[in-house]
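User: I'm putting together a teaching handout on how sequence relates to shape, and I'd like one worked example. Could you take Alpha/beta hydrolase from Streptomyces violascens, show the sequence you're using, and then write out its predicted structure as tokens right after it?

Assistant: Happy to. First the sequence, then the structure tokens directly below it.
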Amino acid sequence: MSSTELPETLAAASLAPRVGAVRVAEGEELRSVSLPGLTLTVRSRPGTGPGLEPALYVHGLGGSSQNWSTLMPLLADRLEGEALDLPGFGDSPPPDDGNYSVTGHARAVIRLLDSAGRGPVHLIGNSLGGAVSTRVAAVRPDLVRTLTLISPALPEIRVQRSAWPTALVALPGVASLFARLSRDWTAEDRTRGVMALCYGDPGRVSPEGFEAAVQEMERRLQLPYFWDAMTRSARGIVDAYTLGGQHGLWRQAERVLAPTLLVYGQRDQLVSYRMARRAAAAFRDSRLLTLPDAGHVAMMEYPATVAQAVRELLDESAGRHRGAGRAAPGRDTGDRETTDRENRS
């Protein structure tokens, strides 16, 4: 990292101030997990029955574990759900080493799972969290039972124009410039801008949901490391896009063994819908859910539809496990099956 970029980083990381209460929905629990080199906030939604399999939800760039508060209760009868705040996001302070790369975030996920002994989990990621989850599933297949990727940030050769501003944040000095230019913007203005970018139809957001998002935006803007975490994580995505060879994300996607559900919105302004077919071909055991009216955060826009697709994945995975004892040793059960569904609601 350049020593000329955002010099307040080290001070911010060492202070890691708490600037306000984080919203906790009814039925959720929040806890802090101390690990070597980082501290993570984990939001849990206990399952409604005994013996449920564990799930871990991983949010995207600029998001937090709150992004999963609508989906988790819809799967609580099937999964013991936990959603983490990646380092520097939500209520998690920056990592000690300042590493916001995709690999750095993946390492945080792996450390959390190893420390808790929860694996293998049903791993569910959105955007940046999708790229992180892909890397985790590729390098630690023992930790992942199934993989669900919602608009995963996988490399695109031709990034759509609506995603350019987000990519530009990765450039040195751009975040500081934007922070100065937008100094007079209210939290409501910023929230509306984010929702216009991330939602296929921002009108689907309830007044209560909008107010909660505004409050979270106000809280984040008080964090001295907010822009640093955004900048370095955006740079991490760009770096991952340009990384080739066996460490490239597309190459790692081909190595994923877990049954994989891919969810893409046709109105996504950040991850192009045209990448859906390539992703379905890259993951060896994939199924594809396409939502014509969804944007970048389908789990918040159409949570019931996404939950149903996850249930189908769980059912299929459970059926395979039950039949594993009858399968010959070493038998490959990873036939590719790609299914398109459309939400017409």
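A couple of points you could highlight for students: Residues 120 and 144 are 5 Å apart (CA to CA). The two ends are 47 Å apart (CA to CA).
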